[in-house]
Amino acid sequence: MPKPQLRSVDSAPISAPPAFSFQSVSRHFGEKSVLSNIDLTVPQGQFVAIIGKSGCGKSTLLRLLAGLDQPDGGQITRAPVQPGQSSIRIMFQEPRLLPWARVVDNVAVGLTGLASRSEAKARAHDLLEKVGLSDRDGEWPSVLSGGQRQRVALARALIGQPSVLALDEPLGALDALTRIEMQHLLSRIWQTQGFTAVLVTHDVAEAVILADRVIVLDAGKVALDLAIPLPRPRRHGHPDLAVYEQKILAQLFGEDGAQA
Amino acid sequence: MTALQARFGAAIGWLLPVVILLIWEALSRAGIITENVLPAPTEVFAAFLRVLKSGDLARNIGVSAWRALTGLAIGGSIGFALGLANGLSLLSRNLTDTTLQMVRNIPHLALIPLVILWFGIDEGAKLFLVALGVFFPIYVNTLLGIQTVDPQLIEMGRTYGMDRRALFLRVILPGALPSIFVGLRYALGIMWLTLIVAETISASSGLGYMAMQAREFLMIDVVVLSILIYALLGKLADSFVRVLERLCLQWHPAFQKTAQQPART
Ligand SMILES: Nc1ncnc2c1ncn2[C@@H]1O[C@H](COP(=O)(O)OP(=O)(O)OP(=O)(O)O)[C@@H](O)[C@H]1O
Ligand SMILES: [Mg+2]
C-alpha cells in the first residue's frame, strides 16, 4: 500500500486508490430503516469524520464497515491487505480493555493471529511508547485514568498496522482537556502511520480540527460531504475552522440553529 | 495503610477469641461453668495432648480431610464442567438446567436415609453426600460467572480475531473467575457441614465418629475438642481459598493494595 508521507493543504489524496467503498448500502432493523442507499468512497490515507444526530446510524455504518454487521442491501468493498497487517480495527467509546491482563498484554491482543506472543509483547512496548505510556506497561488497567485507558486501546488498535482505523466516539467520555490532548495524539499518529481514519463524533469542532473530509448523516443518507482543505497542525479556535463549523451546524440544525 | 497497621489489623481478629478463652477458663475455675457442661480450655488442651499421643487425632483428621477433599474434587469438578458447558452452549443448558434446578431444591442432607440404604456406612456414602453438597454452589456460580462476562469484551475479542479457544481462555474464563471463587467458598462451608452430619450419623472413623465415641464414654473434653478442630479446619480451608483468590484475582480492584487506588478521570 502506498503510504502518503507528507500531508499538506490538499492532503486528501483524491487520486489514491479507495480504502473502502459503500455502494448503495442499506440497513434496517425490523421496520425501521437506519441507512438507505449510502454511497461513500474513501481514498486510502484519508481522515474522514462522520457527524450526525444521536440515533442516525453512525455506529451502524461503522459496524458495517468493520464487518461486525452485514448490510441488507448494496455492497461494501475493502482494499485487500498485505499479510501480517490487519485490515480494519475499530475503537469503541469504551476502552474495552481486559481487566485481567496487564497493559502490555492488552496491547498485544491487537496482534492476535498476526504475530507470536513474544514478538507481540516486544512490539507492544514500542506502541505504548508512541502513545506516551512506556512506563505503565506492567500495570493493571484498573489503575489507569480514563484517558490513559483510551490510549492503551489506541495502541492495541494500531499495533496490527491496520489499513483502516474506525473510531466510534472514542473521546466522548473524556474531559475537555484530555480530549484535546488525545486529538493531538491521534492527529500526530495518523500523520506518521498513513492509515485511513474514520472518526464518528458528536463534536463538530473535533471533526473540523482532525478531518480532511466531514460527512454529515441525516435520516439514513449522506446529507453533506464537505472537504476541509486546511493545513495542519490546526489550532482550536482558528477563524478558518469556524467557517467550516458553521457550515456543518447549518446542515445539522438548519440556518437558524447555526445562528444561535 | 502501612505494613505495620496491616499486620495489626490482621492480628486484631484473634483478640476476641483469646479473650473469650480467658473468660471461659476463669468461669470454669470459679465453678460457674461446671465440668459436665463445658470443660475448661486447659482440660480440652489436655485431651488434645492425649489423643495426639495415642495417634487417634491424626488418624481421624486424616480420614475426615481425605473425605472432604475427595468429595470436593468429585462434586466440584462435575459442577464446574456442567457450569462451563451450560454457560457456553445453549443446547446443553436447555437440556439440563431445568432438571438441575429441580434437584437443587432437595436439601441434600434429606437424602441421608436413602444414601445409607444404598452405600451402607461405607466411604461411598460420605463421598456421595459431600460431592452432591458442593456440586450446586460451584455449578450455579460458574454458570452465573460465564453468563455475566461483559459482552462488549467478547465482541472486542472477536473483532481482534480470537478463535473460540482464545476467547474462552483469555476473556470468558478470567471474567468468570471471581464468581467461581464465590462458589468455591460456599462449597467449602457446605463440605464441612455435610461431613460433620454424615460422620456423626454413620461412620467408623473420622472426626465426627471421634466425637460420637467420646459422647458414649462421657468424655466431654474430647467432644469439645472435635468441635474446635472442625472450626479450625473450616477456617484453614477458607484462608487457603482467600490466598488463592488473592493470587488469581490480582487484577481485581477489590484485591489491590489500598495504596494503588484507581485514579479515574
Ligand atoms: N441491533 C439493533 N437492533 C435494533 N435496532 C438497532 C440495532 N442497532 C441499532 N439500532 C437502531 O438503529 C438506529 C441507529 O443506531 P446507531 O447506534 O447506529 O446510532 P448512532 O448514530 O451511533 O447514535 P449515537 O450517536 O447515539 O451513538 C437507532 O435508532 C437504534 O435504535
Ligand atoms: Mg453510536
Task: Give your account of this protein's structure.
The complex is a heterodimer of chains A (260) and B (265). Chain A is an alpha/beta fold. Chain A folds into 2 domains: 5-79 and 163-253, P-loop containing nucleotide triphosphate hydrolases (Rossmann fold), CATH 3.40.50; 95-162. Chain A has helices at residues 58-66, 103-108, 117-130, 146-158, 176-193, 204-210, 239-259; strands at residues 18-29, 32-43, 47-52, 73-78, 88-91, 164-168, 196-200, 213-218, 221-227. In chain A, the strands form 2 sheets. A 6-stranded mixed sheet of chain A has the order 5-6-7-3-8-9, sandwiched between helices. A 3-stranded antiparallel sheet of chain A has the order 2-1-4, covered by helices on one side. In chain A, helix 3 crosses helix 4 (146-158) and helix 6 runs antiparallel to helix 7 (239-259). Chain A starts with 17 loop residues before the first strand and ends with a helix. The model of chain A is unreliable at 1-12 (pLDDT under 50). Chain B has a single domain, classed as Orthogonal Bundle (MetI-like fold). Helices cover 78% and strands 0% of the residues of chain B. Chain B has 11 helices and no strands. Chain B has helices at 3-12, 15-29, 41-54, 56-88, 90-104, 112-119, 123-147, 151-159, 164-201, 207-216, 220-248. Chain B is mainly alpha-helical and 265 residues long. The interface between A and B is medium-sized, with 29 and 28 residues. Bound molecules: adenosine-5'-triphosphate and magnesium ion (MG). Adenosine-5'-triphosphate (ATP) binds at residues 29, 34, 52, 54-60 of chain A. Magnesium ion (MG) binds at residues 58-59, 168 of chain A.
